[in-house]
């Protein structure tokens, strides 16, 4: 999604978020990611106000920033954490692990294939449903390398073991990863 993202070209404008909208964003984050409830005030304090940048990368993509530093991005339906937020607050969302063979492909922005999750180096927890947001870790690494959306449930991935299992939304080395400040 952000493979060729450049804030100078793809952010068409940003504006301060009203406090009522900010409360709505916080409530939606707690609803989507229950473990975030204990840290939501640290992560999104009242001051400085949140800003939201409108992106022309995809349909209705917005980047939520605190002091112009990206923390989350959203589309019409969901709010997704930036990888730097996941590194600061591990355990915020469900995690899966891909084997070593998948790492270069994921870093290039490819979706994650089912065999990369079910092989010896992969780990796929039970109970994940289609549409769940997950942090993708690599075999032998501490921090996540991507944020993705489940395209199948974990049971379907195990039973079919073919095709795309996770859509990669944001990964290390994409354009959003390198953005430290959005004006």
From TrEMBL:
Query: Known InterPro entries for this protein?
Result: MCT-1/Tma20, Pre-PUA, PUA, PUA-like_sf, Uncharacterised_CHP00451
Its Gene Ontology cellular component terms are: cytoplasm
Show the GO MF annotations: RNA binding
**CDD domains from the entry?**
MCT1_N (cd11609), PUA_MCTS-1-like (cd21155)
Keywords noted in UniProt: Cytoplasm
Query: Which GO BP terms, alphabetically?
Result: formation of translation preinitiation complex
SMART domains from the UniProt entry: PUA
- Major localization listed first in the record, in broad terms: cytoplasm
Identify the residues that the record assigns to the PUA domain, covering every copy.
Answer: 94-173
Top-rank taxon, per record: Eukaryota
| Pfam family membership, one | PUA
Localization terms from the record: Cytoplasm
Q: What is this protein called?
A: PUA domain-containing protein
Question: What organism does this protein naturally occur in?
Answer: Phaeomonas parva
């Amino acid at each position: 999604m952000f493979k060729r993202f450049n804030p100078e070209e793809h952010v068409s404008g940003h504006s301060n978020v009203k406090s009522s909208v900010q409360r709505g964003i916080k409530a939606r984050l707690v609803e989507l990611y229950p473990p975030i409830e204990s840290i939501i005030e640290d992560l999104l304090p009242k001051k400085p106000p949140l800003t939201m940048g409108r992106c022309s990368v995809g349909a209705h993509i917005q980047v939520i920033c605190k002091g112009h530093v990206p923390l989350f991005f959203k589309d019409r339906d969901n709010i997704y954490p930036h990888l730097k937020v996941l590194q600061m607050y591990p355990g915020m969302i469900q995690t899966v692990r891909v084997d070593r063979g998948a790492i270069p492909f994921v870093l290039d922005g490819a979706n994650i294939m089912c065999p990369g999750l079910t092989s010896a180096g992969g780990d796929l927890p039970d109970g994940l449903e289609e549409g769940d947001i997950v942090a993708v870790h690599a075999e032998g690494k501490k921090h996540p390398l991507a944020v993705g959306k489940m395209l199948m449930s974990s049971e379907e991935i195990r039973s079919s073991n073919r095709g795309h299992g996770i859509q990669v939304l944001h990964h290390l080395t994409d354009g959003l990863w390198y953005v430290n400040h959005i004006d």
